[in-house]
UniProtKB/TrEMBL annotation:
GO molecular function annotations of the record: DNA binding
Name of protein: Putative transposase
Source organism of this protein record: Mariprofundus micogutta
Residues annotated as domain Probable transposase IS891/IS1136/IS1341: 138-243
Gene Ontology biological-process annotations: DNA recombination; transposition
Amino acid sequence: MLSINLQRLTDKQPIMRYNESAWWLTLWKKSDEFGFLAQVQSQVLQQCLKDLDRAFSDGFDRKQPLKRMPRFKKKGSNDSFRFPQSVRVEGNRVFLPKIGLVRFRQSRPIEGLIRSATVSRRGKHWFVSILTAREIAEPIHQSSMVTGIDRGVVNLATLSDGSVFEGSKPLKRLAKKLAREQRKLARKTKFSNNWKKQRERITRLHIKIADARNDAIHKATTIISKNHAVIVLEDLRTKNMTASAKGSIDEPCTNVRQKAGLNRSILDMGWFEFYRQLEYKQRWRGGQVILINPRNTSRKCSACGFTDKVNRQTQAQFSCMACGHTENADVNAAKNILAAGYAVQACEGIGGYAPNEAGTRGAAMRPLPLAA
Ligand SMILES: [Zn+2]
C-alpha cells in the first residue's frame, strides 16, 4: 500500500485512504500472490493500514513541519504489530488472536481496561506492551519549583540551580567494540553461519548501547520531573540539526566530518528522548514543559543581559565582558533558558515563538502559575 501510494503521488494522483485500502486488502487475501496475509488476524492488518494512513496525514500536515512522508522500513529493525482488541491476560499467559495463549513475564500489574496490545521484537526477544484506559484524578504537582535546563554534549543536562546530570555515554565506550565487531562481520562470507552469528552479536551490542543510554535518561528525567513543576528547555529541533550535516546537492556541507562527529554525540546523548520523557512524566504529575527559542542562550550574560560571542571564550567558561560576571557556561545558559521561560509565560501567544520540537504546536504550553 505504501508503494502504491508513493507511486500515486509521483503520478500526481490522490492517495488511497484507509477505507479504500481496506477494501483492497480483502481482495489481496484471496489472491495467490498475497494469500499469506490471511494467516494473520485481519484486525492486525487493518491497524497497519490505519498507521500508514495516519503517517500520510501527518506527512501532509502543515502544522507538523518535522513529519515527513512515510518510507519503507528495513525488515528486522523495529518489527511490531498491534491487536486492537480481543487480547486478554490469564495468569502468566496472554491470549493473542490467531496465535493463542503465549506464556509471558508480566513486569507490572495491569490496571484498567485493556485497549490494545502491541507485540514487538528486539533481537531474539519478543515483547508485548498492553495499553489500558482508566479514570484518574487530574494530577497536581507536588513541587512548586521551576528550572531551566541546558542540554549539552559533555553533560546530559545542566540545571539553572547548578546541578549536573552527566548521563552515560555508552556509544563512546562501546563504539570501539562495535567498530571492531563490524569489521569482523565484513570479513566473513555473507549469509554463512559465522556471518549470521556475528550479525547476532552486533544486534546485541546495539541493544546494549540503547539500553544503557535509555536507562541514564530515564533516571535523570524522573528526578528532574519529580522535583520541578515547570521545566524550561530549548527548542533544539534535533532532527533538523542532525539532518543538516549531510548538506544538500546544491550546497554540500563543507564540514560534514566535523558535524557528523558532533551529531553522533547529540544522538548518543538522546536530546529528543530526554525532552520526550520529560513531557510525558510532567503530564503524569501535573507539571509542565516549556520550549523556548535557543537563540543567544549561550552568549547572553545571565547577570546583566549583555549578549556577545566574546563572552564565551572557552567551551566551559562564561565571562561577561560588560559586568565581569563569570560562571560555568552551561549553568549560565540554563539560567538564560529559565528567564526565557518566564518571558514566554508572561506574553504567551503574543507575537510569540511557536515551539514544535515534537511536531505538535504548543502542546507543552498549558498555562500554569509560576512560583518564583
Ligand atoms: Zn554581564
